[in-house]
Each structure stands twice: as C-alpha cells, then as structure tokens.
C-alpha cells in the first residue's frame, strides 16, 4: 500500500509540472536520476509513475534520449480523402515526412495480394516511411500499391503525398473502403525510424483505399505513437 502511494505521489508531482508548464510541450524531462533526487523516490517507483503518465498520453519516450512532454494531439480522420499534409496544415501544425524505401516486391503477404486482387507471384509496390508534426516523428507506415492500376507509381512519388500522385498522374480520387484499429507496440523497424522503444505503446491503423469502381488500389499499415493522435470519424446522418 505504501509503495502504491509513493508511485501515486511521483505521478502526481510529475503531472503537476506538466499542468503548470514547468516542462513545456515537447520539452525533455530531467533524467531519471535527476527526477529521483528531485522527488525523493527510488528508481523503480519513478519508472512506474512515468509509465503511468505514458499510458495516459501525457509523456513519451525517445530511445536513448529520455522522456518528453507530449505535444498537442493531431486530430486524424482516417476515412477522409484529405492528405496528412493538408490536415496538419489546417490544424496549424508543421508536417514533414520521408519515404525511406520505394521498391517492387515479388512476394507480398497473401492477405495483401488478396485485398489488391493480385496473385501471390504478382509484383507489388511497397513504400515505407514516416510522418512528423513540428519536427517530432509520430507515425511509421508501410504502403502497398497495385502496379496494375498505377503503373510507375513509385517513379512519380518523389516527396509528394499519395493523394496528390493519384490525382495528378492517374486522375483518381481514392476513398477509404476498410478501416481497422488495434492497440499494439512499435515494431522493430518502426522503433528505428521514429525513435521509440519496443515497449512504446502505439495504435496500428490498417486502411484500404479504393478507386471509383470500388477496387482496392492502396493498403496502408500505420503505427502511430499513442500520445500523438486522436482518431475520429464523422458519421453521416441517414435520410
């Protein structure tokens, strides 16, 4: 009981610093050693308090860099055709992104081939990258695209948003056909690219985008930092 009270004390003190702006948004917290001295608690007690605040989305951890106060959450409607770039700008945020790799894969997972209506031996475009808000990397993605419906897609991509390439080079406006969400942890590759750890909580978003004929032409697998995003979907009123 005493240990629990001590953890709650550490958590409450840290939360008060965040609420009062002692640690500004996006700023680094003192090291765990310094925090132990400031709060007069043991390392294990402090760690439990930090993890509790992480689970509430108040702070986040960067591998080998320490703990940071969370930035404002990004409001993300995964059903919208609006690109990440446009949505971020509309919310007064500074978006940035990078495509780490763009390649043609000969043997994609069976479920990817099935949803893109391809045979297992058919080539598929695989594009991996990350997105950031205000210079903080918030998600990692794997994007699969059917080359039969978008030949030479990766040669047109550059640093453009996917929606821009579809519209400009294929005269296609894609829409979301399927969405799935799952709480998880960052994968190894996601950790390397956006600076998390294997224990970093995240939200996996699987999104299938279709053309005007209803064919799935793009599949996005996204890993979002738990503290960085609020998902919402606007439900249309039935007539």
Automatic annotation (TrEMBL):
CDD domains: WHTH_GntR. Residues 4-72 form the HTH gntR-type domain. It comes from the Bacteria. PROSITE patterns: HTH_GNTR (PS50949). InterPro entries: Bact_HTH_transcr_reg, Chorismate_lyase_/UTRA_dom_sf, Tscrpt_reg_HTH_GntR, UTRA, WH-like_DNA-bd_sf, WH_DNA-bd_sf. Pfam families: GntR, UTRA. SUPFAM superfamilies: Chorismate lyase-like (SSF64288), Winged helix' DNA-binding domain (SSF46785). One of its GO terms (biological process) is negative regulation of DNA-templated transcription. Keywords: DNA-binding, Transcription, Transcription regulation. One of its GO terms (molecular function) is DNA-binding transcription factor activity. PANTHER family: MANNOSYL-D-GLYCERATE TRANSPORT/METABOLISM SYSTEM REPRESSOR MNGR-RELATED, TRANSCRIPTIONAL REGULATOR OF 2-AMINOETHYLPHOSPHONATE DEGRADATION OPERONS-RELATED. This is Transcriptional regulator. It comes from Shimwellia blattae (strain ATCC 29907 / DSM 4481 / JCM 1650 / NBRC 105725 / CDC 9005-74).
